[in-house]
Amino acid sequence: GDHLYARDDHVQEYMGIREQPRVPLRPPHRPLIWGDLNIIHTTDTHGWLLGHQKLSWAEPYYSGDLGDFSSFVTHMKRIAIEKDVDLLLIDSGDLHDGTGLSDGYHGGVDAHESNKFVGRLPYDLMTIGNHELYVYADTYDMYTNFIPHLGGRYLTSNVNITIFDSDGKSESVPVGNRYAKFTTRKGRRITSLGVIFNFTGNVANTTVQTVHDMVNEQWFVEAIAEEPDAFVLIGHMPVSYDSWPTVFNAVRAVHPLTPILIFGGHTHIRDCQQYDGRSMGIESGRYMETIGWMSADLDAAKGKHDNITFTRRYLDQNRVTYEYHTHTSKYAFDTINGRSITYGLQELAARYDLSYLYGTAPQDYTLSQNPYPSNGSLLSLFIDHAVPYALAINNTRDSIPNIIIINSWALRSDLFKGSFTRNDQLTVMQYKDTFLYIANVASGIASQILPALNNPPAMKQKRDETEDELSRKTRDGAWLEEIDDRPGVDRREATSDKWTFGYVTKDSCPNAGHADDTLHTALPYYPAPYYIGSNPPNVTADTPVDVVFLNYLGEEIIPILNRLQKNKKYTMDDVSLYSPMLTSDVLGLYAQAKWN
Ligand SMILES: Nc1ccn([C@@H]2O[C@H](COP(=O)(O)O)[C@@H](O)[C@H]2O)c(=O)n1
């Protein structure tokens, strides 16, 4: 029902259509290679449905929006029909926690409204992410309002929700479907699963089964018993250094030659793994920056033992990319459904008052393009300036010296020079976490907590993180440093061609370094510690101070405090609310006071 239409300039002006992109962008450097089974993949979109609207590089390369993406998918489906091949659309979870569109609601449920727009895309398969599992109301909303529209193709092979009937009787049921078997337009029989990594931070009344236990379930054994033409396995699980081999090996043990295509997520990176010559797994970045592409020549490999020819590509999410690959002009690109999604999202942004201005940021503050600590570091701005300012407001404990500790991953995206709006506040820090404290800790002990938290053996005790996730945190830094093969210092200043900045990916599949669709110069990258803290107060070692920390860190602080001193056995009873302020409010308060 999605009709294409051409526009002329007059119509464009009349309809108030925005001119996108607002700055010239490099186009892709070569056409996509199609196979007989092709997949467009999104993951970890985190509510970035209006795309990236800032002009600091490399943001314009991600300036497409969900409406543009919808138009792209419609054109690609048409091209697939013309080529007489299959094209599937897949998402690997984490739809929200990331922008005002998904998290700027007034008293509603996170992502309830934004997901209605996602639901207008013709997804063939979707799965659940950890962000759909932090708050029961969010999971329940997915279960009741979103998943039913997917017609059995929203897969949660190892995730259950507990639901209650009107008598309060409870039942634990899969959030979506455990698996799906379907036939493509070209008659290919597909078996699919939807798997999340061994996540342990899920809210009460949801359960995540370990991947190892899942593959030993009777339903799993039965689901994979019959041989399809291909297994299309999706999951909110990284394709490297995680549990995909557990699933892969379980399938391979039964079907030594059946093609296996894997679509992962969670680590926010562009990545690829081949588990053997007849399989490939990709991960397609984050925040509507990257659209993943995989193609496979299945017919040529049918009934043979040869390796399958796969291709993969990481597309920058913008209209230049979309028009290039669909051979359309900016006048013929938009579809009615695409335009209507864009307008609907803009209307939602207006309804949520997302352009409400807190102040004007004097410069860019980045998470990893500047070292921490430094003047350009968002982590420094937040922990050294914004949090101490915001926590001091109307706080009776303000006169007592304190040490504030947060997890740096609570900050989610860079803060750019110029207007700092309600939407910017929520893109940088959308979690509604609270600040807790433990009183009367000797300063000499309190100042040892942060180094102890950042020390790897202590990190292993983290309550709701698996070893897998911990190792990825360390690895992510190493991985990004590895791809960042140019000298880090002042790279942004050193080149006048800032418009070339963007992702430079070296993944682990054949022709590593050739999977980015648009050629870029890598952005500078500096790793930061997982935990960061405010500057310790200038007091003697025995001065009592408040240890202030995010509720997300919860019980992690207690065992460390008990290891560092033996005078008192701390428990959660020693923890109190430090301020009614939420983390998502900090930067707005700071900007209002300092950037006007
Ligand atoms: N209430 C919360 C929830 C999560 N976090 C942080 O986010 C990280 C998970 O995000 P991914 O996109 O990597 O899935 C988690 O490790 C926490 O650092 C938080 O701060 N508050």
TrEMBL record:
Record CDD domains: MPP_YHR202W_N (cd07407)
* InterPro entries in UniProt: 5'-Nucleotdase_C_sf, 5'-Nucleotdase_CS, 5_nucleotidase/apyrase, Calcineurin-like_PHP, Metallo-depent_PP-like, Nucleosidase_C, Pesterase_C1039, YHR202W_N
Q: Biological process GO annotation list?
A: nucleotide catabolic process
Q: Which PROSITE patterns match?
A: 5_NUCLEOTIDASE_1 (PS00785)
The Putative 5'-nucleotidase C-terminal domain sits at 364-557
Q: Does the keyword Glycoprotein apply?
A: no
Keywords in UniProt for this one? Signal
Q: Which residues form a coiled coil?
A: none
Can you supply one Gene Ontology CC term for this chain's record? extracellular region
Q: What's the protein name?
A: Metallo-dependent phosphatase-like protein
Q: Where does this protein come from, organism-wise?
A: Suillus subaureus
The beginning of the lineage is: Eukaryota, Fungi, Dikarya, Basidiomycota, Agaricomycotina
